[in-house]
Design brief:
The chain is an alpha/beta fold. Helices cover 37% and strands 14% of the residues. β2 (97-101), α4 (104-115) and β3 form a beta-alpha-beta unit. α3 (80-91) runs parallel beside α4 (104-115) and α8 (268-289) runs parallel beside α10 (354-371). The structure holds pyridoxal-5'-phosphate.
């Protein structure tokens, strides 16, 4: 049957068809709560109580959710994770960073550091997409750039210090709140809210250790040129006043706070991590049992429980499957564009119901059968 004529039976479909890795599914309850704020939040000053208390609620929620020690601080600013890479280039790396690179996102931070003329050429430890690269303690490295989950390939990696005194920052954009983590293992754990936190984009959040706070101060005091919008000292000073340096997106803040509270009410980080595991189990066990599909990531330890990447046999057109799913309201299962594989990529963040993940696999089977000749 031609792909555009395939109608998946309604009772087979997931209740919510959003499986995008970012922006990701925003719960409709959170959207309803935003709507219910009426005239009390949207369109009011971010220097006044309604927004400041929202930022405070978010900061307190993150401290409790991640069980942060008393001397850790939650810093936030505008520009998403990408801006936070540049903020690190200006405000955290002293001379030379080391980057593990095993996909697009880890590669982009390494590239941002490489372009900086005030820094030495970074040390890059790179492996093939689908595998994990491990940081190695080396003399002269003052910042180790880790990534908790490489969203482009569906690979998760351990968060550990390569040496006890190593200064470690972790891109946790598609991991934070969905993979277990221990605050003693990082100095900065940073993310944006449009992935695991099921909000919208534009913001960065950084959980900072005392060593990170100290580093922010010492680099700022060094006299180096730092653009104000990327200045972490300015961001820290504002965060301590429940504000951001420039205007944040209020809906982004609100939706993130809603998602965080929802996860806390349900049992916190371990609950959220288990929920993602259940979704991942549904998808990977289906792929393992399929004749035409299999998990892209071979190493079981590295197989992400938040972003599943599934390869298809050459005679199957994964793009056609994604197209049929999309026409049926099941969206954003396309692979990361630059990876260029015959693949589907499925986000399994905490907002996704494991039942929906299981339903998705049944829909894929249905599409495969119905595509028939193509399949
Ligand atoms: C999406 C993503 C980014 C980029 O986030 P932006 O907020 O769009 O800048 C960076 N790192 C990882 C791991 C991501 O998944």
């Amino acid at each position: 049957m031609p792909p555009d004529q395939i109608a998946i039976p309604p009772d087979m479909k997931p209740a919510d068809g959003r499986f995008g890795s970012g922006p990701s599914k925003v719960r409709t309850d959170a959207l309803a709560a935003l709507r219910a704020t009426g005239i009390s939040l949207m369109g009011t000053s971010h220097r006044q109580a309604p927004v400041k208390s929202l930022v405070g609620r978010l900061q307190e929620g993150l401290v409790s959710f991640f069980e942060l020690p008393d001397d850790y601080e939650v810093v936030l600013g505008n520009g998403g994770t990408t801006a936070f890479w540049d903020a690190q280039v200006f405000g955290l790396i002293e001379r030379r960073s080391q980057h593990v690179v095993f996909g697009e996102f880890s590669g982009k931070f390494a590239e941002a550091a490489r372009l900086a003329t005030h820094l030495e050429t970074p040390d890059v430890i790179e492996t093939e997409p689908g595998t994990v690269a491990t940081p190695i303690a080396r003399a002269g490295i003052d910042l180790y750039a880790l990534i908790h989950n490489e969203t482009s390939t569906g690979v998760m990696a351990p968060v550990t210090r390569p040496a006890p005194d190593a200064f470690v920052t972790v891109d946790a954009t598609s991991a934070a709140g969905a993979l277990p983590v221990d605050a003693s293992d990082f100095d900065v754990y940073y993310f944006a809210p449009q992935k695991t936190f099921s909000s919208d984009g534009g913001l960065w959040i950084a959980l900072c250790s005392p060593a990170a706070i100290e580093r922010i101060g010492s680099v700022a005091a060094s006299g180096r040129y730092i653009p104000p919008s990327l200045d972490l000292k300015i961001a820290l000073d504002n965060s301590r006043k429940q504000q951001t340096y420039n205007t944040p997106a209020l809906a982004t803040l609100f939706l993130m706070a809603e998602q965080l509270d929802w996860m806390i009410d349900n049992g916190g980080l371990s609950w959220a991590a288990d929920r993602c595991k259940a979704s991942a189990e549904a998808v990977y066990s289906w792929a393992e049992g399929s004749d035409v599909a299999w998990p892209f990531v071979k190493d079981l330890e590295a197989r992400s429980t938040t972003v599943a990447t599934i390869d298809f046999a050459d005679h199957i057109d994964a793009a056609a499957i994604a197209k049929v799913l999309r026409a049926n309201g099941i969206v954003d299962t396309e692979p990361y564009r630059k990876l260029g594989r015959n693949q589907l990529r499925i986000a399994l963040y905490p907002a996704v119901d494991p039942e929906d993940a299981a339903a998705l696999t049944r829909c894929i089977d249905y599409v495969l059968e119905t595509l028939g000749g193509n399949a």
